[in-house]
Amino acid sequence: MRAASENDRGFSLIEVIVAMVILGVLTTAALGLYITSIQSAATLQRREIAVTVASQAMESVAATPASSLYAGRSRAAVTAQWASNATASGLSQTVLNWDKSATLPAAVAVPLTRSVSFSGTDFSVTTLIGTCYQRVAGPGAGGDCGMVSSPATSFTSLERVIVVVTWTAGDSCAAGSCRYETTTLINSHPDQQWKSGA
């Protein structure tokens, strides 16, 4: 029988334990990075869905004739909707507007709020519509569309549409709802007299 030389020795118990500890630390760090990347991907996916949902809502508004934008929107419902979305961008420069017909139609042309569900997440879509005024003549023509106390002939009215999409899912929305907004102006006049730039 041959005697074992020093080169034939295996790993000692301490070397094996140190290797396992190093491997455990590296595995834990990699697992944490993997979980964070999965959560980030899910958050990004929800935001992309919110952008798509908002775009679809805006396309629906664009497909509605300008004369029907307010159809079925009662003053009480619009007032409550605006109160719950007071921080929406552009709302402070928009005049609250509603269907002023004597009898409201049974159906609302553009829903005030609706819910959609994608990939296990519920999204709430709120469509705010109001009036703002843009100067079309004189100094500052084509500037921002805002509120005017007594619009003269140098101003034209435009309809501002604000779509707000909210959702709650994951840790990124723990402090409240996640939110995405988009805004556009609609000219309900057939003569296209407003200017888009200064």
Automatic annotation (TrEMBL):
Membrane topology: Single-pass membrane protein
Compartment(s) of residence: Cell inner membrane
GO biological process: protein secretion by the type II secretion system
Any Pfam family matching the protein: N_methyl
PROSITE patterns found in the cross-reference section: PROKAR_NTER_METHYL
GO CC entries: plasma membrane; type II protein secretion system complex
Sequence intervals crossing the membrane: 12-35
Protein keywords: Cell inner membrane, Cell membrane, Membrane, Methylation, Transmembrane, Transmembrane helix
Cited NCBIfam families: IV_pilin_GFxxxE
Membership in a protein family: Belongs to the GSP I family.
Protein name in the entry: Prepilin-type N-terminal cleavage/methylation domain-containing protein
Upper taxonomic lineage: Bacteria, Bacillati, Actinomycetota, Actinomycetes, Micrococcales
